[in-house]
UniProtKB/TrEMBL annotation:
Source organism of the structure: Georgenia deserti
Regions annotated as coiled coil: none
Protein's recorded name: ABC transporter substrate-binding protein
InterPro entries: Bact_solute-bd_prot1 (IPR050490), SBP (IPR006059), TAT_signal (IPR006311)
Length: 445
């Protein structure tokens, strides 16, 4: 599944929570030249219109718009039509757009969705566009480029990499007299810390949130054992057995039985709760697994009285590993303005001003010149995210593209994990159920 990265490489590679936003289309127009395609033709003015789509919340939208405004101010005749939504709405819309031949010219994806389009040849070869002079890939390491390949073709470019990390509340650790997590901590240390919190915290608090419902920590355990949730070549196969999942659910069943984690009722309630009302954001849990680039979001919610830290998910498997997931950008192969799309991507990832605006919005960008631009200008929290990426670089392992249908995995994981929490399934039954449901979702034999 995997590419292991050294420290220097990881800093060039290694961040996506979302806030609600309806799908919006905006235009930034200057000058005129040429015509666009794929439903974005130039019209009477001769404008080249390029449709660019992404997901996110208000902060991310503002950053993208500022970057694209800057691009159009310097490229007379190019209009960037912008489409964005929250995560769920965005990825629900894309398949319909591709099926109808009306997908955006430039689109942002993750390795979870790329196979839905790449297997049908719907994404352009970015190396071919680079060879034509429309995109500079020289600042990207071989590892970061490999993370964006599907069947050997570079179809997506890494714009941000993040790590599902153990986010922890320093104040709660200090008040309970428990040592802070370290890079090399293991399951026993994690378990013992939760025992300490059980004795030190109030009844409505817990050492950790209930993580049996979350895919990234489960996959981290699999990666530590040289496996993954899905086959690394994006074929319709799983890359783990029911016994692996049974072990995972057994850990968390024991945590529940011993009163060492968030209750089943609380975990269920948090699924539909606003972010700021969740257990960790309310300082009622000492630990929670969350993408490392979300540290600033949680730190803002918790305030300076609750300083946060980052550690890898504890070692459960045979070898230490930090699972790395990415956010990427692609060009629609059917677009009639592929060259302009590549030029826009080039500006987004390589222009120092764009780098400074974007920061660590999606984690550490893949291009090395970004690091040169922002060095010394990061906020304290962003610097902490970068330092964490540096610290876990020797054990970092990249996710690979998933097969079509795998987008259901988060829902399946939540349903099965909650069934374990409420006692509706034993760990063994849950392991078998997870395998069966995931296999059915991707059409595995």
């Amino acid at each position: 599944m995997v590419q292991n990265n050294d420290r220097r490489t990881f800093l060039r590679l290694a961040g996506a929570g979302t806030l609600g936003a309806g799908l919006v289309a905006l235009s930034a127009c200057t000058g005129s030249r040429g015509t666009g395609g794929n439903g974005s033709g130039g019209g009477g003015s001769g404008q080249t219109r390029v449709r660019v789509a992404w997901w996110g919340g208000d902060v991310r939208h503002a950053k993208y718009n500022e970057i694209y405004d800057l691009y159009t101010s310097e490229h007379e005749g190019v209009t960037i039509e912008r489409e964005y939504a929250d995560y769920g709405g965005y990825f629900e819309r894309l398949p319909t757009q591709f099926a109808g031949g009306n997908a955006p010219d430039v689109l942002h994806v993750t390795e979870r969705q790329v196979a839905d389009y790449a297997q049908h040849g719907q994404l352009a070869d970015l190396e071919a566009l680079a060879e034509q002079g429309h995109l500079d890939l020289s600042h990207f390491s071989a590892e970061s480029l490999d993370a964006g390949r599907f069947d050997g073709t570079l179809v997506m470019l890494l714009v941000g990499a993040t790590i599902p990390a153990t986010m922890y509340n320093r104040r709660l650790f200090e008040e309970a007299g428990i040592d802070l997590p370290t890079v090399d901590w293991d399951w026993d240390t994690f378990y013992e810390a939760c025992e300490g919190f059980r004795d030190a915290l109030e009844d409505n608090q817990a050492g950790t949130t209930y993580q049996a419902i979350a895919g990234p920590p489960f996959e981290t355990m699999l990666v530590q054992n040289g496996k993954s949730m899905f086959a690394p070549d994006a074929s319709a196969e799983l890359n783990f057995e029911a016994a692996d999942a049974e072990e995972w659910f057994r850990y968390w069943r024991e945590m529940l039985d011993e009163g060492l984690c968030q209750s089943a009722e609380s975990a269920s309630e948090n699924q539909g709760a606003p972010f700021e009302d969740t257990m960790f954001a309310q300082a009622n849990a000492a630990m929670h697994v969350q993408n490392s680039n979300q540290l600033v979001t949680f730190q803002t919610a918790l305030g300076e009285d609750n300083p946060l830290g980052l550690a890898p998910f504890p070692q459960i498997g045979a070898e230490p590993a930090a699972f790395v997931i990415g956010s990427f950008v692609c060009v629609n192969e059917a677009s009639q303005v592929k060259e302009d799309g590549a030029s826009i991507i080039d500006f987004f990832v390589n222009d120092p001003r764009a780098n400074e605006i974007f920061g660590l919005e999606l984690g550490t960008p893949g291009n090395s010149n970004w690091e040169e631009t922002v060095a010394g200008n990061l906020s304290e929290v962003d610097q902490q995210v970068l330092d964490f990426a540096n610290e876990v670089a020797p054990i970092s392992v990249y996710a690979t593209p998933r097969p079509p249908g795998s987008g259901q995995s988060d829902t399946i994981m939540t349903e099965v994990g909650l069934a374990v929490a409420f006692g509706d399934l034993t760990p063994a039954e849950a392991g078998a159920r997870l395998v069966d449901d995931l296999a059915a979702a991707i059409g595995a034999d």
